[in-house]
Amino acid sequence: MQFGMPTLIENRTLEDNVDLCRSLGLQFIELNMNFPEYQAEQLEQTEHLLDLARKAGIYYTIHLDENLNIADFNPLVSEAYLETVRRSIIVMKKLLCLCDQYGDVTQPLTLNMHMNHGIYITLPERKVQMYDRDLDTYMQSIVVFREKCEEWIGEADVMIAVENTDGFREYEKRAIEYLLESRAFGLTIG
């Protein structure tokens, strides 16, 4: 079993998080893409990430932005999120050597994500989730997401793990069931 820590809001730099992780005897840090200092552009500076991790004897996982919405009905928005995932997978593949050296080689390196509930419309007697209303369109986006992730990950020992947060809507359960048919996806139970 591996023990790690999330990116802490109290720590403004990666160096601060690495120092704390090492001092606590933890094995990894989950870099959170909700923080401005862990956007794709910063994470792509992998030599810096690798150098700090090697000195501390740790590895990293990544948590995708919680606003990630690969099924957004606006293709410009969904494409931007897909591009974020693609770039994050490239980073993960470059960081995989750290997990092989300092982590559990029997486990894939994880890229955590939340399912975005999408928007809802409030009617006098109920709320209608748009992804539930337009399930076929939603599922088409999920199919594309899975196919692209499988392509981007390839044979690398990287897995995208869907994290349980506040429960899953019925349409999300259907999407997760479909994603879990792929070796590229798993679940994070928190």
**Relevant CATH superfamily:** Divalent-metal-dependent TIM barrel enzymes
What order do the helices and strands follow?
EHEHHEHEEEHHEHE
The gross shape turns out to be: elongated
Going by CATH, the architecture would be: Alpha-Beta Barrel
Biggest beta-sheet profile: 6 strands, parallel
Q: What name does CATH use for the topology?
A: TIM Barrel
Helix fraction, binned, reads 40-55%
- Proportion in β-strands: 15-25%
**Distance between the amino and carboxyl termini:** 15 Å
In spatial order, strands of the major sheet run: 1-2-3-4-7-8
Account of the protein in words:
It contains 7 helices and 8 strands. By secondary structure, it is an alpha/beta fold. The chain has one domain: Alpha-Beta Barrel (TIM Barrel). Helix 4 links the parallel strand 3 (59-63) and strand 4. The chain is elongated, with a radius of gyration of 17 Å. The two termini are 15 Å apart.
Care to give the gist of this entry?
Helices cover 45% and strands 18% of the residues.
Write a concise keyword list for the protein shown above:
190 residues; alpha/beta; TIM Barrel; 6-stranded parallel β-sheet; two-stranded antiparallel ribbon; 7 helices; 45% helix; 18% strand
Q: How would the blueprint of this fold be written?
A:
Blueprint (H helix, E strand, L loop, with lengths): L3 E3 L7 H10 L4 E5 L7 H4 L2 H11 L2 E5 L11 H28 L6 E5 L6 E3 L4 E3 H4 L1 H19 L4 E6 L6 H10 L5 E4 L2
Parallel strand pairs: 1-2, 2-3, 3-4, 4-7, 7-8
Antiparallel strand pairs: 5-6
